[in-house]
């Protein structure tokens, strides 16, 4: 029995190791290629360790006229505005759907959540026509307006967590004279901080990686985001894969740092959501 148990554990770890290698291998190759000189890449291929590692590819990304400076700035601004809007409006909507009473509340909530089933590609053309009609095509506001007023996923998740706040605590604060705003920001939000942090990370990752809508609604380098800039590198420098991989590595670096910094909050929020 002991031998069988050891074999079962060894088989499990072997499967997990293979899965981890298959998952991480593309990222590892991307990072290795980004630090490889074009000469070494041409001679030895992408599966060799950089000898020596070079930063020329990253320097070129930020020194070329069509480099990554503008896309990084535009992407940071876009993500910041969308994040602020989604968090504020999602928290307010989730509180209304969970603790305020008004006619048609549940029906409106489920109709809104049902929009999660609609693929983004279905609404791209209507959104494009709307933005064109009001003169916002190829502007910063066209990048953020479709997403800034809340997210069905965020509202659904927050509503379920807000409903778990003990009614005794809310009643006690109401007796002390607390209004709706004070209940929300001094009680409900602090008690749900882990799930809000997780939603912040999900929002940042989603819109940092957003490619389809920025590609459709913008043209030219003025409002180009980092995903579109990375795609443009593949067509502009299709023979210089070291430069393309440097752009890919740079695009994913902030997200990796975020996940490492906030991994404890994510684990805690997942555990609390599971228990609820």
UniProtKB/TrEMBL annotation:
Compartments where located: Cell membrane
Alphabetical UniProt keywords: Cell membrane, Membrane, Transmembrane, Transmembrane helix, Transport
Key word Ribonucleoprotein present: no
Gene Ontology cellular component terms for the protein in this record: plasma membrane
Protein family according to the UniProt entry: Belongs to the binding-protein-dependent transport system permease family.
CDD domains in alphabetical order: TM_PBP2
Highest taxon of source: Bacteria
Gene3D superfamilies linked to this entry: MetI-like
Protein name listed in UniProt: Sugar ABC transporter permease
Organism field: Brachybacterium muris UCD-AY4
Topological relation to the membrane, as annotated: Multi-pass membrane protein
Lineage per the UniProt record: Bacteria, Bacillati, Actinomycetota, Actinomycetes, Micrococcales
ABC transmembrane type-1 domain location: 72-262
Transmembrane segments: 68-97, 109-128, 140-162, 183-205, 241-262
Signal peptide start and end residues: none
Record has Membrane as a keyword: yes
Annotated InterPro entries: MetI-like (IPR000515), MetI-like_sf (IPR035906)
GO biological process, one term: transmembrane transport
């Amino acid at each position: 029995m002991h031998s069988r148990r050891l074999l079962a554990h060894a088989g499990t770890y072997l499967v997990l190791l293979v899965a981890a290698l298959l998952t991480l291998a593309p990222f590892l190759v991307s990072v290795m290629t980004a630090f490889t000189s074009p000469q070494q890449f041409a001679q030895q291929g992408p599966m060799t360790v950089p000898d020596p590692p070079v930063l020329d590819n990253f320097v070129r990304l930020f020194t070329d006229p069509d480099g990554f400076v503008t896309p990084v700035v535009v992407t940071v601004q876009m993500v910041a505005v969308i994040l602020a809007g989604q968090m504020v409006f999602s928290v307010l909507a989730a509180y209304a759907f969970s603790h305020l009473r008004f006619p048609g509340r549940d029906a409106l909530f489920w109709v809104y959540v049902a929009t999660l089933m609609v693929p983004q590609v279905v609404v791209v053309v209507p959104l494009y026509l709307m933005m064109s009609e009001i003169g916002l095509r190829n502007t910063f506001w066209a990048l953020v307006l479709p997403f800034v007023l809340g997210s069905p996923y965020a509202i659904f998740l927050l509503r379920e967590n807000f409903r778990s706040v003990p009614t005794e605590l809310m009643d006690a604060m109401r007796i002390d004279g607390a209004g709706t705003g004070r209940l929300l920001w001094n009680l409900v939000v602090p008690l749900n901080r882990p799930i809000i942090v997780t939603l912040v990370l999900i929002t940042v990752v989603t819109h940092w990686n957003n490619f389809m809508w920025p590609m459709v609604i913008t043209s030219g380098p003025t409002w180009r985001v980092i995903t579109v800039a990375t795609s443009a590198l593949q067509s502009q420098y299709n023979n210089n894969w070291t430069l393309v991989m440097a752009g890919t590595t740079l695009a994913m670096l902030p997200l990796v740092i975020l996940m490492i910094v906030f991994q404890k909050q994510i684990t805690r929020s997942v555990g609390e959501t599971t228990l609820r």
